[in-house]
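Quality-control log, excerpt.
Job 1 of 2 completed; input and output follow.
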Amino acid sequence: MDQVIRRINELASKARAEGLNEEELAERDKLRNIYRQKVLDNLRSQLGDKP
């Protein structure tokens, strides 16, 4: 998960500085979805819900 977060941050920095190309935008969206799903899974686990 640390690698996912690190890459999201790299892409965010690049987006602010110079913008992202189509491939990087797609990668960013994919990584954000992975991160979002992990957060939701963790929350469900803590609340005791089954996915």
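Job 2 of 2 completed; input and output follow.
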Amino acid sequence: METIEAKTSTDRTVMHVLYGMHTVSPFTAWTLSLVALVIHYVKRSDERDPVYLAHHNYMIRTVWWTAVWLTLTSPLFFLLFLPGLIAWIVVGAWYLYRCLRGWLRFNDNRMPE
């Protein structure tokens, strides 16, 4: 029978850093998001705490859905610039909302959803 190991302040710090990376990622051409995504996958593989596991899964889904929506709306830039820009602003705002919502819920030791 596995027991859930107690989380350390380092575990919390890592999650806060990952949320911080995601939050500033739209301003770094999404590069920090890709780095954080890899770390989420690595950390998730050994995670047993349900709250931490839920937050890793939440951010992994957020990144992939953002990538899907950015890809689907990118042809708008080739047709007309303004609709593409508006679509990307909406996707970016949704991404930031998910990051901040998850981060605040993590800070309160709550599930992301």
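Post-run check on job 2. The two ends are 28 Å apart (CA to CA).
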